[in-house]
Fold these 4 entries.
Entry 1:
Amino acid sequence: MHTSLPDFDMPNEEQVHLAAESFRLLSDPTRIKILWALLQGESSVACLAELADAAPTAVSQHLAKLRLAGLVKGRREGTFVYYTAADEHVRRLLTQGLYHADHIDRADQAPAPTADAASGL
């Protein structure tokens, strides 16, 4: 059925795997805070820890995973490493995710009331 559609196209397996890995890494609130801060400009682990309200060691671990996934880049200056978001794709991905979160129709997401809730018990 789909193959009869003239413009139908599916991503290849590698694209699907890499996109799923990026989404998996973005499923952590601390990582979203870190990335959002990095979209504002270069930052150190200590500053990111303060902004994300997390321990510096935890932020370092998050940054290592984000760097391996290609979502952030690091620049060493002496004993310090300064991080930035990898590119404009990261900005668009995170912006769209946050925009979507702001526009979710909560009424459609709410579970149906139980009989007890409906009767006021």
Entry 2:
Amino acid sequence: MSDTPNCWLCGRPLGDIVQWHHPVPKAKKGKVKVPIHPICHKTIHANFTNNELARIGDSASVIRDNPAIAKFVAWIANKPADFDAPTR
């Protein structure tokens, strides 16, 4: 059994590079931080504004329900933990 934490967004094990995401942005008084892959972090911020993230709160499932995020999570599912690619 592994002690490796999983990514808040995609659920894959985290690799050597871990970023900390504020589900409610710091600019919107968010205090909670969750571990996340850099590519997952970039994808969230490419698809949601800080205001949208503040309204969503800390629900990863609501973020994953977004069609663009759902497509991304399905695509990244079998990639290695430290996989990275340009984000659109």
Entry 3:
Amino acid sequence: MSETVHIASLLVQALPDQQGTIEAGIQELEGAEVAHGDGQGRLIVTVETSSEANIVQTLTDIQLLPGVVSASLVYHQTDSGHESAEADI
């Protein structure tokens, strides 16, 4: 039996002069990773968790970081691994 994984991408707008601090704060959150930052405060963040509730909590945690102007969910996918397990048989 495989575990379901929730994968999401977020768009974060940060104050440009605080982008480095915000990136470090995001990296400390479990399952969160800064995939891209443009140096002007825009960040693309990926989140991989075991539940939808954890994605919501991570999004809230990012929104509450000092210097974050906004954080929005852009994409969410659920992967149970069922199809890939069958392909390996």
Entry 4:
Amino acid sequence: MNIALWIVAALLALLFLGAGVMKVAQPKEKLAAAGMAWTEDFSSGVVKAIGALELLAAIGLILPAALGIVPVLTPLAATGLVVVMIGAAVTHARRKESQMIIVNAVLLILAAFVAWGRFGPWAF
């Protein structure tokens, strides 16, 4: 189970690292043109803040546990991603983008799995 938790955490970290860098580095208009139409509902600052949260969560999923420095940050980062995915699902539901809600639900379940495992029986 420990290996499964590491694999899921690494997968989430890679996904959110990429998504976060994209949101922080690119202007909102370019993101909207690339298929992230939801960015039209938010200011540039909020989109950048979401990207920064995703970057911090990606780092928090791996580094604290790997380095053994405040490893409780790993399940906290996973819990933060659960909250971000709830917000994303609500945003996509308002926009009637049901395909994206499925993606959000899958990522939410994976992040909840890591949070459960790292807070619970397979804590560091």
